[in-house]
Specification:
Helix content: 25-40%
Largest sheet: 3 strands, antiparallel
Strand order of the largest sheet: 4-3-5
Low-confidence stretches: none
Number of strands: 5
Strand content: 15-25%
Number of helices: 4
Shape: globular
Order of helices and strands: EEEEEHHHH
Structural class: alpha+beta
Mean pLDDT: 90
Distance between the termini: 45 Å
């Protein structure tokens, strides 16, 4: 059985099974940030609107990855939020 690997959400600081978290990677060889897979420095986020908002507002990913985080990264993650929560974002 695969051993449980826990990672900490960059926004809420909660520990969770890494398979349940979004992973954002700064590739070892440089280049744009990757999502989900790749070798390099990683930051993790709970797949929730609250944590995504917190990370964006307080620059949590920049701090964890020690590099700039492009707005497109946040947009890509936003697309993954369950439809119910992203509909609320549109209405604001």
């Amino acid at each position: 059985s695969m051993r449980l690997v826990q990672r900490r959400c960059a926004a809420c600081r909660r520990l969770a099974d890494r398979r349940l978290l979004w992973r954002i990677i700064r590739p070892a060889g440089g280049g744009p940030l990757l999502l989900d897979a790749g070798m390099g420095r990683s930051a993790y986020l709970c797949p929730s609107e609250a944590c995504l908002t917190e990370a964006r507002r307080r620059r949590r990913l920049q701090r964890s990855l020690r590099c700039p985080v492009d707005e497109t990264v946040y947009r890509q993650l936003e697309q993954r939020l369950p439809a119910a929560t992203s509909a609320c974002v549109e209405a604001r």
